[in-house]
Each structure stands twice: as structure tokens, then as C-alpha cells.
Amino acid sequence: MGIVRFGPLVLRWCLNCNIPVVEQDTCELCKSQTVEVPVTPPGDIKPAFPREIRMFRKIVDAQFGEGCGRALFPQKKIVVLNPVPSVDKMYEVILDGQVVGAVRYDFNKKWQMILRMEGAFRIEKTLTRNYVVADEGAIVPVLNGSNLMAVGVVDACPEVAPGNEVLVLDKDKHVFASGVAKMSAAEMLAARNAEERKGVAVKVRWREAWRAPRVLPDRYSTWDKIAEGSAGALDKKESMAINFIQNVIKKYNKPVAVSFSGGKDSLVTLMLVLKAGVNPKIFFIDTGLEFPETREYVHAIAKKFGVEVLSESAGEAFWENVSTFGPPGRDFRWCCKVCKLAPTSRLISKNFPEGVLVFIGQRVYESEQRAQKGNVWENPWVPGQIGASPVQYWNALHVWLYIFREGLDINPWYLEGLERIGCYLCPAGTMGDFSIVRKKFAGMKNWERYLQKYCEEHKLPEEYVKYGLWRWRSLPAGIKDFLGAVQIPAKYPETLKLDLAEGYSPCTGGISIEGIYNAQLDIERIANLLNIVGTVKLYRDAGFCETQNIKIFAQGAVIVKGKDTQELREHLSRLHAVVMKSVYCVKCGICVARCPQNAISFDEKGIRIDEGVCKHCGSCLQPCPAIAYKVEQDVW
Q1: What is the DSSP letter of 203?
Q2: What are the phi and psi torsion angles at 605 (to 5°)?
Q3: Tens digits of per-residue pLDDT, 449-469?
Q4: Which of 16, 146, 149, 157 could pair with 32 in a Cys bridge, judged by C-beta atoms 3.0 to 4.6 Å apart?
């Protein structure tokens, strides 16, 4: 995997105060020089909250023996976490200005601590499990880059099994390497005694000649005090954000709102807009997949700051449409369009028909897409909205330190260990996230029961649910490597298909092509929606309708013509979009907001075109979830 870098790495540490500092070369508390902490990009650092630290202690105790967790994570020590690219949830763990290891959730539903040498040295005296003792002759080769071979093992904890994280010790029980066991303890020792002494016992990740752990002053701090240590950087970020807000408001001269999801980034965005001297409306979109605590939290924050909440709910839209689209994926996010952007579009259409400037808490560190988006944008899925982010170039540590400095209340789910707050079943979530949610929220178990049923109906292997493979349509390389020989066939809800004849035929004024859909069509509904692209004639008794360039029959047959191949393809594409819209409309309302003539309404089947008002402009054709997520082919 290549380096994922969305913004500068800004984590530094004051060794005198023993606290993290964001950006600054000098600590504001003691005026001493700070040192850079090398972390893996993108470097979106977050605090470790008390429950997370308690969990880490349990993980370390389970792996390396009772007392190791406390040795690695002493009481009151400040710990920060760096989310790093991995197959699933994984954090680099940093304290005392050092990366001591990484905590990882693997696909076998188990948390593991992967110790670097700094962490290994700290638990050496309390270590009672998952260790391997190396022969003296094996030490130098390991320190020089080799793995530990079975022939070099003189002893091993009996519980060592393949896949376990282990520490490698010398005969004096000093640790000098860490890695993953490739054999059981019995296999290591048996291989040593065998005539053919072959095989890797430990694949070594980290190595260093033995040394005593660094001794740092036992200085403890609190997060609000830590924020003071980065006061200069925070002041600069705040000033730039407020100037940005005021300039954008002046430029666009529209009503102002803040999109508030209940997460940390939108919380800081709200605070900044208020500090800019603006009293905004709050947009809260209830996707129908929110935590109850999030709903309560949003209204509590609005009450605290005296701002009005404008809310729109997606209701049961997710559950009403999951049978049409199938489980959502990171590369197939129909749920965002149906459950979030469509309600946002309806809310704006009802409350701000002339448009609205919405401040949104998005940041470049969150994804490549957001890194490329810029800090002011328009989204074709949300007509009437100009989006702007005053925290676009903040990293998570900026955000958290600002929250602590301002004394802001946070969503309680952060304290449970979630990195982001949103829909509880979001496909962007990790199995590690879901393991946290499952313990406290029944909705996650209901979703997993649905997935199990879906898996059985589509004859998918158990790995589809076990490893959360529903989160992708096209599995990424890392997941495929993990699965090995396991094959996951593509199984999705059936989609209407258009089969085209080979080649074009000459016709009056150009060329034509014929095709047929694999199902009967509601020709009256097709005729109504074809108004999107042109004036329509319906021949009800004959069972077909037509525009100037398109003819379509109830049995599914189509004839499309154009003056040349480019125009033919355009007409064919529009026809297919209309047909998909007629069959798979989810009544999201995005097309209603996009129609300049107010010619669209809904009936029991979906959208309905007012033929007397429609100007055939095609503005409502796309974007549309039915087209974006059900068109699986180039129709030509």
C-alpha cells in the first residue's frame, strides 16, 4: 500500500511537560523545544479516552501476562492514537512521545497489540506469556534483519501458537525483537531437535539491541491543560477559520446554516460560525440509522447555544430500498444519497428556495475525495446548497484540542471508542467499530441478522458476513489477499437489463439500433417519464409510446435513432435512464428540487411528470440513485 498523505504531519511532543503538541516547535506551557513524533500518514491523531486505555490494558494482559497492561499504560498517562491504513481498524499507540506499538482488530473478531521495541522494553519485567527465547548464536542475525529460525529457539512459552504476537528474548530474558509466531511452541522445539532444522519460528517485525526503557519525569496532565500547550496553533486556526467564514458569507450573501451530524467536526464548525458573529440555523438530517444518543445530543447542543434546529428525516427509506439496491458499500453508497442527501435537498427546498450557504465540518485528512474537494463547493445531489468547510485543513488533534479548550460537550459514543459518528451500519465503518457498537446498540445485531438472511438467500459463503465483505462491491486487493482461496461471487438484486442488437441500421436522417429489456414495462409510466427528454405520444391500445427519436414497447422492445453514433448514444443513454427511473424510483425528492418548472410530484409508484408544465429540459434526469446505482452497463 502506498503512502496515504492528505495533509502535513503535525504531531510534536513536549518531553518536559510530557504532552502532545500540535504543529508548534515550542510548548506554550514551559517554553521548551518540542520534538517531532514520526507517525504513519495520514496522521489524523486522536486522544485515547479512558475506556479505550482500559481496553488496551486488557488486550496486553491477555497477550503477555497479568500486569503488562499497567506496565505499558501507567495510570494517568496521556495516550494518543494515530489511525493507520490497514485491512481493518488499526491505531498506532503513542505515549511519552514514542510510538510503543499498534492495536489492531483482526477479522477473527479479536483485538491484538503489536508491540514495537519501545513498548516491548516497558513490559519486559512483567512478561509471562507469548515469549520465545533465542539461542545466543541467533541474536546477531536477527538484529541484522533475519527472522528467527526454529533452529535458533531454545525455549518458548507453551501457549505460543501460529499468528500470536510474541517477544523474542535472549538467555537473560532481555527482549531484543518482536514479531509474529509462525509455529506453535511445540513445533519450534520439535524442529530444533529434529535432524532437519528448518522453518521460520518468528517473523520479526521490530528489532533492537536490549536497552532499559527511557526514564521520563512522572508528569501528568489533563486535556484542557494540553490544549494550552498548543494555544498558538489553535489561535491561528481559529482566526483563519473565522476570517474564512466571514468572507464566504460576504461573497455569497445567502442565509447561513451549519450541517450538524452530532460529530466533533460539525461541533467545532458550529462554534466557529457562532464566534464569527453569526446565528445560523442547524441542519440535522435523521437518516433513520442514527444512534438515539446522537439525536438527543444534537438537540441538547442546539439548546445550549440557542440556535434553531431544522430537521428532516429519511424515515424508513433505508429499509424500504435495501431490497432494491442490496447492502451498501464503500464503493456503492446509495444509502448516502437516499438517506442523507435527498432529505437535505428536501429541507433546503422547503426552507430556502433561493438557496443557502451551509458550513460543513469536513476535513482533508478524512479521505482522498475530501482532500481534493476544496473548502467551498456545490454538490449536484443537493441543489440550492453551497457547501463550505472552515475546518478543511485541520487535523483531528486540532479539532479535539479546540473542543477541550472551549469546554464543549461531545457525543458520548466517542468515549466508547468510535472515531467517527454517523449511521451505525455505515459501510465506511470497520469491523472493530461494529464490535464496539454491537455491545451497546441492538440495531447492529438487527443489521447483522439481515445480512445473514441476505447471505443465505444469495448462497454466499459465511465470510461475506463474518468479515464484513458486504462493505464492497469490488473487494480491495488487501481483502482479496486475506481471503486467499475463498471466492465471493457477485450477488446483487436483479437489475433490469437492455440487450442491444449488433450493429446499426440506416434510417431516415441517420442510423438506428434495436434492443429489448428483460422484462415487461409499464408503458403508461414510461410514457409519462419520457417527457423528461421530449414530447411523447402514447399509443395505449398498441402498447407503445414514442418521442422524435425513441420508440419503446410494453413488451420491452426499443428502437432508438440519431443522426450519427454520438447522438444515437445520447438518446439511448437518456432512454435507459428514464426506464431505470421508472422502475427503481425511491421517491428521494432530489429530482423535485432540481426541476425549474416544479413539474414533478409523487404517486404510489414514484415520480410523476406534469406533462402540461414540463419543458423537457432533462435537469431532473441525473443525479438519481435509481440511475447511479442500478445502471450496471454501458447500454451501447
Answers
A1: E
A2: -95, -20
A3: 999 999 998 888 888 999 999
A4: 16
Is 579 strand, coil or helix? helix
Cell of residue 238, nine digits: 481559529
Mean pLDDT score, 186-193: 81
* pTM listed for this prediction: 0.91
Cα 154 to Cα 152: distance, rounded to the nearest angstrom: 7
How far apart CA 450 and CA 396 sit, in angstroms, is: 34
List Cβ neighbours of 201 (8 Å cut-off, separation of 6 or more): 132, 147, 148, 149, 150, 152, 153, 156, 181, 182, 183, 188, 191
Report pLDDT for 632: 56
How far is the C-alpha of 607 from the C-alpha of 611, rounded, in Å? 12
Report which of 82, 116, 169 is spatially closest to residue 419, judged by C-alpha positions.
Answer: 82
SS3 159: coil
Which structural domains are found in the chain, ordered by start?
Answer: 11-207 (2.30.130.10), 230-416 (3.40.50.620), 431-483 (no CATH), 498-628 (3.30.70.20)
CA distance 131 to 134: 10
Axis-axis angle for helices 264-275, 231-252 (nearest 10): 70
Contact 494, 584 (CB under 8 A): no
Residue 215, all three cell numbers: 526514564
